[in-house]
Amino acid sequence: MTSEPHILACIDGSTVTQSVCSYAAWYASRLNLPVALLNVVDVPVSSRRDLSGTIGIDSRQILLEELTQLDEKRAKVVNSYSNALIEDAKSHITNNFDVEVKAYRRRGKLLPAIEHFKDENRAIVLGRRGTDHQNDRLNIGSQIETVTRASNRPILICSEQFNTPASYLIAFDGSKTAIKAVDRVAGSELLKGMQGHIVMVGRDDDNAKNSLAKATEQLSQAGFSVSAHHLPDDEVVESLLQFQANNALDLIVIGAYGHSKFQQLFIGSTTTKLITKTLSPILLLR
Q1: The three-state (H, E, C) secondary structure of the chain, written as one string
Q2: CB atoms within 10 A of CB 249
Q3: What CA–CA distance (Å, rounded) separates 47 from 99?
Q4: Distance, CA of 45 to CA of 81 (rounded, Å)
Q5: Dihedral sign, CA of 87, 93, 99, 104?
Q6: Are 60 and 124 in contact (CB under 8 A)?
Q7: Per-residue model confidence as pLDDT tens digits over 166-223
């Protein structure tokens, strides 16, 4: 396996797959990197437990042989579907974007498959809802938080509709997580040349204002076109989404999961709430 960096697009055949491919290709083109398509297949093996102690040895052997044949057929169908999915995804990208495309298929679970490429992953693109929630707009894919907490790479979460981003909003609260997110934006070419807005909600004190001004200055000095906004409202998520809608901003950028899972039980997670309440793409930075 090559050590060349890439943008990893996790595809599963759900309704967001084409959008994942498009956003991954857009991301890759901004950084002049290839796209690596990743499809993870997990084929369950039929149970081999004896269902009745009255079945004879010969009968059990025949049943085991039939189960083995069924497993082989199931694996063959899954492999064929995976191959077709990858080929369709490659065609979609090459027909619409000028980027190199690589493809990988792994067996097992998504997180270990992603970690297998951790040295090559420059960023990871996931669909907001995988096959487990593909018909429910209020839910998010069950893997998103797990993958985000385990990875130190930027993660782009997207929904079905692809629109080439031309503007973005950075959710900023002055925390270490938010400051680090600004550092990562400033150190990348991804959003350069786009109109940016860095938005703080509430926290009407001098420390908050100074932190916002410092973050804005950092981005400006790095060559970004960005303006700062301090909203007086108390409801963070609703205020951010309303600001985004009022200004027709294409992309939301946020520092991901600044609190532990234990703390989240008590105070909730702005990250998860944002992912749940919007269909806009969200860039999670840790």
Answers
A1: CCCCCEEEEECCCCCCHHHHHHHHHHHHHHHCCCEEEEEEECCCCCCCCCCCCCCCHHHHHHHHHHHHHHHHHHHHHHHHHHHHHHHHHHHHHHHHCCCCEEEEEEECCHHHHHHHCCCCEEEEEEECCCCCCCCCCCCCCCCHHHHHHHCCCCEEEECCCCCCCCEEEEECCCCHHHHHHHHHHHCCCCCCCCEEEEEEECCCCHHHHHHHHHHHHHHHHCCCEEEEEEECCCCHHHHHHHHHHHHCCCEEEEECCCCCHHHHHHHCCHHHHHHHHCCCCEEEEC
A2: 21
A3: 44
A4: 18
A5: negative
A6: no
A7: 999 999 989 888 999 999 999 999 999 999 999 999 877 888 889 999 999 999 999 9
| Residue 137 banded pLDDT, cuts 50, 70, 90 | very low
Contact at 8 Å (CB) between 61 and 71? no
Range ranked top by mean pLDDT from 25-39, 234-248, 254-268 = 25-39
CB contact burial 17-36 (16+ within 10 A = b; e otherwise): bbbbbbbbbbbbebeebbbb
Q: Which residues partner with 103 through β-bridges?
A: 37
Q: Using an 8 Å Cβ cutoff, are 179 and 215 in contact? A: yes
Across 68-78, average pLDDT: 76
Query: Has residue 150 got a pLDDT over 90?
Result: no
pLDDT exceeds cutoff 80 at 142: no
Rounded-to-integer distance, Cα 159 and Cα 15, Å: 9
pTM across the whole model: 0.84
Cα-flanking dihedrals φ and ψ of residue 15, to 5°?
-65, -15
Q: Return the percentage of the chain with pLDDT > 90, whole number.
A: 56
Q: Do 118 and 48 form a contact (C-beta atoms < 8 A)?
A: no
Domains of the chain (ranges; CATH) run: 1-160 (3.40.50.620), 165-286 (3.40.50.620)
